[in-house]
Amino acid sequence: MKKLIKLFFCFTGLALSACQNDPDYKAVRQQVLDQHDKIMMDGEKAMTFKMKLDTLAMSALAKFKQQQPSLDTTAELQQLKTLSKKLNDADERMNDWMHNFKTDVDGKTNAEAVSYFNGEQVKIRQLDSIYKMVLKESADYLKRFNVKTDTSMKTMDHMKM
């Protein structure tokens, strides 16, 4: 009798697990949207860093040259341009993703919608990696010149160098 009860519970468990559906597309879509919102904050930080890099290139680098005559301003300007371009590229990739992202799944089955949003989740995670990499690279560069990389509202009001 105990074997029959165990067997019944095993089959019940298997039957229940076999009947589980794909996750609801709305849950997967929300994960993508939540990740997007998080990355948008990185996008704002990237634009703040870009402004600081531009300020460094336009005026502050000359001051550092006076303090450190051996500073190769040509090489530094090239590095500033490279970092600025990487920040712009990350921002453009994010804009492209947002332009192409569709929240409307009319005409798709739940499984098709889940598949679409899972694909978008991969893309948004790649964007997150790109932002993290370029933000770290930019922050490290700015710190070399004692530029504060804190992006709180207080710092955004006045650029501190």
What characteristics describe this protein?
161 residues; mainly alpha; disordered C terminus
Describe the structure.
This protein is mainly alpha-helical and 161 residues long. The protein is built from 5 helices and no strands. It has one domain (23-157). This is Lipoprotein.
Outline the secondary-structure elements:
Layout (H helix, E strand, L loop, with lengths): L1 H17 L6 H43 L5 H28 L9 H35 L8 H5 L4
Helix pairs in contact: 2-3, 2-4, 3-4
Question: In brief, what are we looking at here?
Answer:
By secondary structure, the protein is an all-alpha fold. Helices cover 80% and strands 0% of the residues. Residues 14-19 and 153-161 have low confidence and may be disordered.
